[in-house]
Amino acid sequence: MASHRLDRTSEDIKRELSEIFRSLKDPRVDSLLSIVKMDLSNDLSHCKVYVSSMSGLEATKSAVEGLKSASGLIRREIGNRVRMRRTPEFHFIADDSIAHSAHINKMLEDLT
Q: Which DSSP category does 30 fall into?
């Protein structure tokens, strides 16, 4: 029963984070930024957010710096939008899986 609640809360946070990312005015945060994976702790106090950008790993690292500087605003917005007793602390991690998969897709297209 608890895993359903955790999964549902995780999906709600993921959806709201995507909207918040689009509304941030920091120039380091790319508009093509997407959430690859999200790990929410069982006690809902910490949340690791793996983000990736189509612009490459350097743009993703820059976006992570922008997200870290805006983490207070992001935490407050999540607290206002998602009903939770305690809002998790967010840890943003750069991930290059989108660029890596695009590279593999290009290599596969070159083979055919």
A: -
